[in-house]
Amino acid sequence: MTFASDAGDDAAGGAAEPRALAAEAHRHLVQFYEDEEFLARRIAAFLAEGLLAGEAALVIATQPHIDACRTRLKANGVDVLDAVESGRLTLVDALALLPKFMRDREPDPVLFGGTVGALLDEALKRAPRAKVRAYGELVDILWQEGQRDAAIHLEELWNELQRGRAFSLLCAYAVGSFYKEPGQLQRVCGTHTHVMPASEALVDEQTNPYATVAPPQYAERLALEAAKRAEVEEALRESVRELRAQREAARKSEEQLRDFVENATIGLHRVGPDGTILWANRAELEMLGYTEEEYVGRPISAFHADEPVIEDILCRLKQGEVLHDYEARLRAKDGSIKHVLISSSVYAPNGEFVHTRCFTREITARRQAERALESSRAQLQAVTDALPAAVFQLDADFRYLFVNATFERWFERSRAELLGKRDLELVGENERHIVRTELEQALRGDPSPTKRKSPLPAAAGATSPRATSRIARRRRTRRA
User: Fold this and answer.
1) Is 437 inside any structural domain?
2) Which residue in 267, 274, 419, 436 is deepest, having the highest Cβ count within 10 Å?
3) Model confidence over 136-152: pLDDT tens digits?
């Protein structure tokens, strides 16, 4: 039941009339198949023709194939119940039968004759025309289990049974079993008299339902086909492996990206075009103290302490601006205010606002430190401003960092005019070398203050005697 022979094959093989050939005893046919439904139809057609002509039938198959065969035989006009009850149709479970004659993974000839031979003899007794059609897939089971030699040995035992009994035999093999070993097809075909078409396209139900071709020619053709299919299947398997590998890589990449944003140490969130929070990562939720249910799905404005600020942020983003370190204040769950820097842009494929991409960095501690520093500076300024002496601070480049009120009065210049200026810019021409020497001595770490009478110029250029002391203050880096 596979490929219909072409004119060349008919001429070379000298094939007999198909129906006569199928009905004739001592024919050993092989059916290669890919589709289970196709196999069931071909088995039923082979058996039904004999049963309807008064022959007996013996089926040795797996239970699913027996059930399928029953259904197809009914469709072909066979009264299955009557055939079974009359003994003209015998159905045997192949998996249960195999252990009765297999010994050490090989079929025992004596046991095979005593089991399968007995089944054939009983079927022949009940056949009105003393002919039997048998279908067996014992060999297919062995072949699919990798027991190649045992399957071929079993085919030879079937041939020995045919020498003394009038029955035609149809065996079946799954084509997929030969994809890796297409050369084995010739070995299997060599134990059969005829090969039946394995393709629906090559079966002519009207005129030639059992067309056969000579085994040598067909085996070569089927081997080539199996080899090509094996190559195609291997290519497909390789493509599937690559696709699975790509999917796994994409899955891992997505998993890593999700972990990256969910567990980032900086707050992240997305806001929709209507100002609703669509998503926020763990860092942002922990920073403000909210659960996901309390934060996501609510307006972002509900968490901003300054409404004009969030309105300005959303307005700029809708206009396509990219924000960098936009300072804002957020209201935490415990009522405290968090100072943050927001960097954000909009995801807008095809120009359509989908959501923002916001990074929120908390600077509350920095703001507190800055306020503390400003307070300390104010206190220092207040204390030094009350002193009758001029107090000032220079950096390593001799620029003024701090001056008190007395210093401003002495120089008759404001703090704004003095800060950032070099010390040398404020002394007279005659004092430049002396001042430079004193400053460098202080920066070298001389523990003794520099004290002397020196004329310090006022804003108008006048001078008055003053006592000056300079002491270097060093950081851990030893830089003054």
Assistant:
1) yes
2) 267
3) 999 999 988 889 899 99
